[in-house]
Amino acid sequence: MRFVEQILSNGALERYFRREGKMSDSVVALPVLKSKLRLYCLRLTDKILILGNGDVKSSRTYEEDDTLQGYVMDLQKFERLLRHEVRSGNVQITEKEIITDKSFEI
């Protein structure tokens, strides 16, 4: 909860997250220090954070757990769809908001 409160107060600053996924995507996880819980998110800007899903991490990496890997893959797929729509002009992302009338299906 401490991290969530800091994000609400200060924004989704990079220092609050641990990079996950691939170098080419924006998938991050809240760094839970004393727990094995993981929450995966997309950090698009300091003001835009898309919460994904999470679970108890029982393996060294998320790739070794089918459930966690599925959550990360869903976020990666959503980000690809979002970026495609930005390039197509159907979505605009500013520092503070995502502007669109589109719905996305993963």
Give a description of the structure:
By secondary structure, the chain is α+β, with helices and mostly antiparallel strands. Helix content is 30%, strand content 23%. It has two helices and six strands. It has helices at residues 2-10, 66-88; strands spanning 18-19, 27-29, 37-43, 49-56, 92-93, 98-99. A four-stranded antiparallel sheet has the order 1-2-3-4, covered by helices on one side. Strand 5 (92-93) and strand 6 form a beta hairpin. The two termini are 28 Å apart.
How far is the first residue's CA from the last residue's CA?
28 Å
Main sheet: strands, sense, barrel = 4 strands, antiparallel
Radius of gyration: 14 Å
DSSP E strands, number: 6
- With strands numbered from the N-terminus, the spatial order across the biggest sheet is 1-2-3-4
Concise account of the structure shown:
By secondary structure, the chain is α+β, with helices and mostly antiparallel strands. It has helices at 2-10, 66-88, and strands at 18-19, 27-29, 37-43, 49-56, 92-93, 98-99. The chain starts with a helix and ends in a 7-residue tail after the last strand.
